[in-house]
Amino acid sequence: MRVLGIETSCDETGVAVYDTALPGAAGLRAQAVYSQIALHAEYGGVVPELASRDHVRKLLPLVRRTLAEAGLGVRDLDGVAYTAGPGLVGALLVGAGVARALAWALDVPALGVHHMEGHLLAPLMEDDPPEPPFVALLVSGGHTQLVAVDAIGVYRLLGETLDDAAGEAFDKTAKLMGLPYPGGPQLAALAAEGLPGAFRFSRPMTDRPGLDFSFSGLKTQVLLAWRGSDQAAQTRADIARGFEDAVVETLAIKCGRALDAAGSEVLVVAGGVGANRRLRERLHAMAAARGGRVCFPRPELCTDNGAMIAFAGALRLAAGQHDDAAVRALPRWDMAGLPPLAAASRESLIGNRES
């Protein structure tokens, strides 16, 4: 089954084609992402209306380009998947409208995909995919959640952030230190030059039971340290390193507790912060010490992309799930309400990929 995936939940326009007949990573026939970073940089953050307009300009050319790279025409598609939410409602409507119109014109099924399920399932595209049950850490600019994955579509929320998401904390901390937009990657690069231990910030909510997160207080600690410092180049790097170490260690501690709570030794990490090198190293070390396993998508599939939507859509479309003709855009959407994927359908797809 060849599925076109469209992602327009925020400020990346992502398109991909996933083919369930091909094994492992080869199933991703082609993908392309257009980033709006330059468009929003002068505002220091995403402007929703500008994001929607840019999706309108870029989406169809990106669809044509991706199909050409896959060596396919539109009539070779067997289904269309798109991000239905959560996200910016105007941006979501652009992708949903194009996807539904294309599916209607081709007389193929269409499916609205949950953005965070797309992230969660992205590591399953690789050649040695983890099998549920496992624990997932979804960590991005908008979300920080720990989820017990009993089966595809059967999710239990174990813990989430009470205020800023980890990626949001990276971006806001970078901004208060005067780093350019987008701040998260800039702060991580600066932290690589910092001395470990020069600044030590608290590991929020690790001194109490539970699996929830809170990063707003950590951001305040950095602000106070920044204002009280000489703000020299090395000091900037040291503060960035102290902040990154605090976030990474907090995430690692909570992941270990979540694995204990779920009785699992397999951790899946997805979302934009999952590309952070120090987080990957720390979680690999934690998993090795426990005799377990941690799985990440390749770095280019950590941030928003069409590949994860094509794959998640392909899983459900191949199982016979599809939507009616309505165009769906859900700025808020609880992943716990998703329908489960039949085990037989999952096993059949895995068999096809491994044959």
From TrEMBL:
EC numbers, comma separated: 2.3.1.234
Free-text cofactor note: Binds 1 Fe(2+) ion per subunit.
UniProt cross-references to InterPro entries, sorted A to Z: ATPase_NBD, Gcp-like_dom, KAE1/TsaD, Peptidase_M22_CS, TsaD
An annotated GO BP: tRNA threonylcarbamoyladenosine modification
Cellular component GO terms held in the UniProt record: cytoplasm
An MF annotation (GO) of this entry: tRNA N(6)-L-threonylcarbamoyladenine synthase activity
Cofactors: Fe(2+)
UniProt-annotated binding residues for Fe cation: H115, H119, D304
Catalysed reaction, written as an equation: L-threonylcarbamoyladenylate + adenosine(37) in tRNA = N(6)-L-threonylcarbamoyladenosine(37) in tRNA + AMP + H(+)
Every Gcp-like domain range: 29-311
Primary location class: cytoplasm
Keyword Acyltransferase: yes
Location(s), subcellular: Cytoplasm
Role played: Required for the formation of a threonylcarbamoyl group on adenosine at position 37 (t(6)A37) in tRNAs that read codons beginning with adenine. Is involved in the transfer of the threonylcarbamoyl moiety of threonylcarbamoyl-AMP (TC-AMP) to the N6 group of A37, together with TsaE and TsaB. TsaD likely plays a direct catalytic role in this reaction.
HAMAP family (alphabetical): TsaD (MF_01445)
Stated family: Belongs to the KAE1 / TsaD family.
Name of the protein in its database record: tRNA N6-adenosine threonylcarbamoyltransferase
Species whose genome carries this gene: Luteimonas salinisoli
Underlying gene: tsaD
